[in-house]
């Protein structure tokens, strides 16, 4: 099964981002826009994982979550990968304690590796973002990404990480995968006690 570990924003945050993305979807209808139900912050993409690895993976991810505090996040700004002039992915950025979020992502990846589900992109630099749209071919989206620069959402506290299964789109299901949360583990709530 195809898996990843992520932080999922709460519905008020995704609704707010959806309202900001609506005019962009109208202006750029040829992009493959992701739905608000699919928005997440990927901590580690695991790819194909055997079912027999799940028990150990669950144990390792629970440990990783317990070692890190809840994260204060807000949607802020945006851009494109690999860059606005040759965009393949359009994303919304995050205002966060970057070191703390990167440390959480590293712990999740290390736990997955120890469980036998090494992330194929583990050596890639972690860049916290929410994917808004994808393109089949690179395109110049500088004018679109300029419009994302002023994106600023309401802060929220991420209190858990989730293990999510990605199902390929079925016939007539649209052009994006369907995500199912398999499990969730709480982060240390010390942030809420400060």
- Give the CATH architecture: Alpha-Beta Complex
Q: Return the structural class.
A: alpha+beta
Strands side by side in the biggest sheet: 2-6-5-4-7
The low-pLDDT segments are none
Order of helices and strands: EHEEHEEHEHEEE
Cα(first) to Cα(last) distance is 39 Å
Principal-axis shape = globular
Mean pLDDT: 92
Q: Characterize the quaternary organization of these chains.
A: single chain
Stated plainly, the CATH topology is called Cyclic Phosphodiesterase, Chain: A
Measured as a percent range, the helix fraction is 25-40%
Q: Give the helix tally.
A: 4
Produce the secondary structure layout.
Layout lengths: L1 E6 L3 H17 L4 E2 L7 E8 L5 H13 L4 E11 L5 E9 L2 H18 L13 E11 L2 H7 L7 E3 L1 E8 L10 E9 L8
Helix pairs in contact: 2-3
Describe the fold and architecture.
The protein is of the alpha+beta class and 194 residues long. The protein has a single domain, classed as Cyclic phosphodiesterase (Cyclic Phosphodiesterase, Chain: A, Alpha-Beta Complex). It is built from four helices and nine strands. The protein has helices spanning 11-27, 54-66, 98-115, 142-148; strands spanning 2-7, 32-33, 41-48, 71-81, 87-95, 129-139, 156-158, 160-167, 178-186. The strands form two sheets. A five-stranded antiparallel beta sheet has the order 2-6-5-4-7, with helices on both faces. A four-stranded antiparallel beta sheet has the order 3-1-8-9. A hairpin with a 5-residue loop joins strand 4 (71-81) and strand 5 (87-95). Helix 2 (54-66) runs antiparallel to helix 3 (98-115).
